[in-house]
Amino acid sequence: MLSIKNLHANIEGKEILKGIDFEVKAGEVHAIMGPNGSGKSTLASVLAGREIFEVTEGKVDYFEKDLLEMTPEERASEGIFLGFQYPIEIPGVSMVNFMKTAVNQQRKHKGLEPMSSSDFLKLMREKKDLVELDAALASRSVNEGFSGGEKKRNEIFQMAMLEPKLSILDETDSGLDIDALRIVANGVNKLKSKDNATIVITHYQRLLDYIVPDFVHVLYNGRIIKSGGKELALELEEKGYDWLKKGVDL
Amino acid sequence: MEKDQDKILNEVTQGEYKYGFVTDIENESIAKGLNEDVVRLISQKKNEPEFMLESRLKAFRYWQTMKMPEWAHLKIPEINYQDIIYYSAPKQKVTLESMDDVDPDLKATFDKLGIPLDEQKMMSGVAVDAVMDSVSVKTTFKESLAELGIIFCSFSEAVQEHPDLVKKYMGSVVPYTDNYFAALNSAVFSDGSFCFIPKGVRCPMELSTYFRINAANTGQFERTLIVAEDDAYVSYLEGCTAPQRDENQLHAAIVEIVAAKNAEVKYSTVQNWYPGDKNGKGGIYNFVTKRGKCAGNNSKISWTQVETGSAVTWKYPSCILLGDNSVGEFYSVAVTNNHQQADTGSKMIHIGKNTKSIIVSKGISAGVSQNSYRGLVKVVKNATNARNFSQCDSLLLGDKCGAHTFPYIEVDNKDAVVEHEATTSKIGEDQIFYCNQRGIKTEDAIGLIVNGYAKEVLNKLPMEFAVEAQKLLAISLEGSVG
Ligand SMILES: Nc1ncnc2c1ncn2[C@@H]1O[C@H](COP(=O)(O)OP(=O)(O)OP(=O)(O)O)[C@@H](O)[C@H]1O
Ligand SMILES: [Mg+2]
Prior knowledge:
- The complex is a heterodimer of chains A (250) and B (482).
- Chain A is α/β, with parallel strands linked by helices and 250 residues long.
- Chain A has one domain: P-loop containing nucleotide triphosphate hydrolases (Rossmann fold).
- In chain A, 38% of the residues lie in helices and 28% in strands.
- In chain A, strands 6-9-10-3-11-12 form a 6-stranded mixed sheet, with helices on both faces. A 4-stranded antiparallel sheet of chain A has the order 2-1-4-5, with helices on one face. Chain A has a two-stranded antiparallel sheet with strand order 7-8.
- The model of chain A has no long low-confidence stretch (mean pLDDT 91).
- Chain B has one domain.
- Chain B contains 12 helices and 24 strands.
- In chain B, helix 1 packs parallel to helix 12 and helix 7 crosses helix 8.
- In chain B, the strands form 3 sheets. Chain B has a 10-stranded mixed sheet, covered by helices on one side. In chain B, strands 13-15-18-21-19-16 form a 6-stranded parallel beta barrel. A two-stranded antiparallel sheet of chain B has the order 1-2.
- The interface between A and B is medium-sized, with 40 and 27 residues.
- The structure holds adenosine-5'-triphosphate (ATP) and magnesium ion (MG).
- Adenosine-5'-triphosphate (ATP) binds next to helix 1 of chain A.
């Protein structure tokens, strides 16, 4: 569903992504690991279409379409979901209102009628239970005053609401306590199907015990320097990144 | 509410000024220009009693001695007062018995404006007085209100039918000497609404006036007078629109409110005069004097306003808190976009003991507009135990617009507690991207954020107008980002 070829991207004239290649097929789970500042979040943002990043080279196909030509909201409506590493607060806008607008705009994009209020509230309730999100959070302003863990859980809740085809979860595990981690991972697993795919960005092998990846990629200094199966994550946990950095030109 | 918001947000994309049509109705106008004869002619056309003519002439003579004020944060080209038509009325009988008598073109205008003049909308329980250009066209629900002793009619009619009340209250809150535009209005006002709630009566429905400027080169100078006797209650709404024209049009209104003992008056405004085009051409100059007097003990006056229109807005709805324990409130959302300029705020004058006031002002600036809050909280010596809380927030869209806050505080009583808080925020690129990433278009994201920001004020509006106001906010900010 997703094919990335030789992707380069800049911010403020500085090259962050220096030629990324990889492919994601329906039903797969990919994990991206790598040291701080290596470009993981940048890759996620570029895939989601954040305009502060400038794509200077390369090609990204998403279901045979040129992803880079699409606006961020088109990408979202076409099924790309980004779980933010640092979810954004939007004071004054209730979660209910926010989600309803999102759900209905995505439906509109697909040529569907807006969801009725009662159906929508039912859906909210169902998905809220799935990630065991505190009911009170759903009636508050988007992420405003949420604790770090609550914000992450809220990201998964939104993912559940929007039922994306390709989810990119940027360090959704960081800041979660052990129970929350299990709940979030369960949520992700329940939403998994043979038609959708997930990219999890993480620093910890622990998450991958719950969400078992088919592939693990190591991103370093804007490039994928190693790819492997789930055992690569274990190896990284044990050895760190230094052994991989050797022989990579900076 | 949620559903309405969706609907509104969907409408955002069709954003141009929706109310910019001109109705082709024959108008009866007098020649351009202003002098004593014109003042006499207006009075004569309206068949006014002697006291009205006298009061107009006094105001006119006073106005001639005055100079138009200047403001630090408003840039206003010189206004040629001789180039304005001071009286224009749709050519038709002014007193109408039923809807069938209303000129179909005029009715179509009001339909376009969404004014609930027709029977079906009357069911929604809003009594409406519509003022087109200068003349009040139709007051619905008059009879059922009359049964309660409530008078709700055009100002001209009040002058004819209730001269004693007009004489007693007109100018008692805003004297013609108050300011330049108050003097001008007092000299040439042509119509407006009059509302009187007798002792002990709670008005069972919202009363509403719609103002519309239609004819070219016309100034609109309307006057509203609301009187609530002891223990009375009324909620009043004013809506304003104007056609799109290249030249600027002048609007200088006066609103006076009197609240007696235990009385409460809520006054809500949704102001959507034509703001001019994207390049700052055309638009209404809106210079309005609005003031309420909490005359009796325990009385309360609330101003709620949503200001999205006009090229220039100059307006400070105020409360004089004369009665002990009286309460004044001011809730405002003022949006400026493109080249609009707004200088608005409130004055709370604490005179009685234990008086309370609250000011919540939410400014939203976009484009190259300038948005200023200017407020005065005054506590006189004998106003023991006075309390004021003011909250002035500014939201900026883009970095070419300006927001300014000028809070003036004059306190002559040691017990007074006057608090002022101010914040400035921006809609961040990250907030917009977050919304985009969930499938929400930028325009709609702004609509969501802005309505969220203004919620505290919008919640004060009567339900049906809150929806209208949300829609207006979104529409007036259309195209302001990206
Ligand atoms: N808005 C920005 N302005 C300037 N530099 C930026 C910006 N965003 C990211 N960068 C830089 O790009 C590089 C990659 O950042 P990125 O957030 O993609 O790293 P990451 O792999 O996600 O790191 P972490 O594991 O710490 O989350 C860093 O050097 C960072 O400082
Ligand atoms: Mg990151």
